[in-house]
Amino acid sequence: MDTIVKGGTIVTPHEKYKADIGIKDGKITSIASNLEANGATVIDATGKLVMPGMIDAHVHLSLPFGGTVSSDTWQTGTRAAAAGGITTVVDFAIPRDRADSLMETVNNRKAEAENDVYVDFALHGAITRWDEESRKEIGPLCKAGITTFKMFMVYRSIGWLSTDPMIVEALEETKKHGGMVQVHAESVDLIDSLIENHSSPEEIKKHGAYLHTLTRPQASEYEAIQRAITWAEYTGGHLYIVHMSTKRGAEMVAEARKRGINVIGETCPQYMHLDDSVFSQENGHYYATQPQLKKPEDGEGLWNGLNSMALSVVGTDTCTFNTEQKALWEGDFRKIPMGMPGSELMVSLIYEGVREGKLDLHRMVAVMSENPAKVFGMYPKKGALLPGSDADIMIFDPDKKYIVDFNQMETNCDWSPYQGKELTGFPTTTILRGKIIAQDGKCVGDQGYGQFIKRGPSGNFVK
Ligand SMILES: [Zn+2]
After folding, report:
1. 148 Cα–ligand 1 center, Å
2. CA 58 / ligand 1 centre spacing (Å)
3. What number does CATH give the domain 52-375?
4. CA of residue 316 to ligand 1 center, whole Å
5. CA of 317 relative to ligand 1 center, distance in Å
6. What separation in Å is there between the alpha carbon of 89 and the centre of ligand 1?
7. Which residues surround ligand 1, an ion (CB under 5 A)?
8. Residue 348 C-alpha to ligand 1 middle, in angstroms?
9. d(Cα 159, Cα 141) in Å, to the nearest integer?
10. How far is the CA of 340 from the centre of ligand 1 (A)?
11. Do residues 264 and 308 lie in contact, with contact meaning Cβ atoms separated by under 8 Å?
12. Where exactly does CATH 3.20.20.140 map onto the chain?
């Protein structure tokens, strides 16, 4: 052993017990009580919880979107992730131009990231067109470790929209190769018509950012979720619904899973901690995301969904835009760059739910580490504290209180949706492949240390 994590309490989705973790050459070699140091570097975890490194399987770093580029880059976004206890992020390769090959887009995105990242990373593909050429790319992409493909049920105007037949065919094709379709589920026709009907200069002036709420009601999400589930049932393909924001949606996924349909639901901290009342605040436009924040009862329903195993994964949908970028809206809700920072606070925000009795502690480790690793074909290399697994470890102080302040954070953002909020529970040390990459909220790792993770089959592999 070259390194030992000593004196902590190990928490996995299944167990909680006191033990030390022995590490050699970046891998876990042994887990036992009172391991002898014998010259190995000792990382003290006394009084703390020791969990597998967390995974944020939904980030958009350096993403060209909304007339600008998301302000958390591969560098700052992965520094923020490390500070927040995360050892692997999964970003997206979205073709810039509809004519672009997805394989080429993936290779470009990989090259962009490789020398910059502080944590390990993988990529989801994205399907924005569907023809013989794109169909033929699915098999080779799966072989290259890209086993998930995002499809958008919205975004007609920027050319990302997938129609129902496209989703059906992609579900069929990905199934043959051990792949999975991820959908952004929102009703494009309903939303587009509501936006059109609420875009008079008078209304734009009167309601400002609150028009997001008026144009994206709960039904605009759960109608699309139900439709996507129908296509998963019809084809037998594997479906993953990203960033779910409604209680009703969570109930639909629970019901479908009970019937044996291969569907997995993901939600994000913002949909459980925030609601659409923020749009009436000053600077309410900062909070614009897509899907929009919904109602307080949706937040409760999503906590419930996670705890009751209806929903299986928490990701953040990190897509950071700073105040200058948000100002591009100039009072028109249709022009706001949509998205917010996320990874750095993911663990602490989800731990709030544990403290409040909404989420089981073991379930927290499942939804942010073991489940994303299993669902996205990275287990047990990632998402596990087992001999042979990568020594990706988060040491967590469940009692440490702190006040959120973007000035103290690694994210490249000059505001925070949680500014001034007191949180309890903090990732004090993040270890990636045996090496400390963050300490007490600061990234101390090396740029480019992160590696590309070639993934195996993705799918409905969690209970
Ligand atoms: Zn996203």
Report:
1. 13
2. 6
3. 3.20.20.140
4. 8
5. 5
6. 13
7. 317
8. 20
9. 22
10. 10
11. no
12. 52-375
Identify the helix (H) or strand (E) that includes residue 416.
none
Measured over the CA atoms of residue 321, residue 92, residue 75 and residue 373, the dihedral's sign is: positive
Fold (topology level) of 3-51+383-443: Urease, subunit C; domain 1 (2.30.40)
Taking Cα atoms as reference points, which of 306, 294, 332, 335 lies closest to residue 462? 306
**CA torsion through residues 216, 194, 264, 58, sign:** negative
Please give the chain's pLDDT, 463 residues, in tens.
Answer: 999 999 999 999 999 999 999 999 999 999 999 999 999 999 999 999 999 999 999 999 999 988 899 999 999 999 999 999 999 999 999 998 888 999 999 999 999 999 999 999 999 999 999 999 999 999 999 999 999 999 999 999 999 999 999 999 999 999 999 999 999 999 999 999 999 999 999 999 999 999 999 999 999 999 999 999 999 999 999 999 999 999 999 999 999 999 999 999 999 999 999 999 999 999 999 999 999 999 999 999 999 999 999 999 999 999 999 999 999 999 999 999 999 999 999 999 999 999 999 999 999 999 999 999 999 999 999 999 999 999 999 999 999 999 999 999 999 999 999 999 999 999 999 999 999 999 999 999 999 999 999 999 999 999 8
Contact 305, 250 (CB under 8 A): yes
- Intervals of CATH 2.30.40.10 along the chain: 3-51+383-443
Cα 435 to averaged position of ligand 1 atoms, centre (Å): 29
Distances (CA, A) of 404 to 42, 348, 351, 421: 30, 10, 14, 5
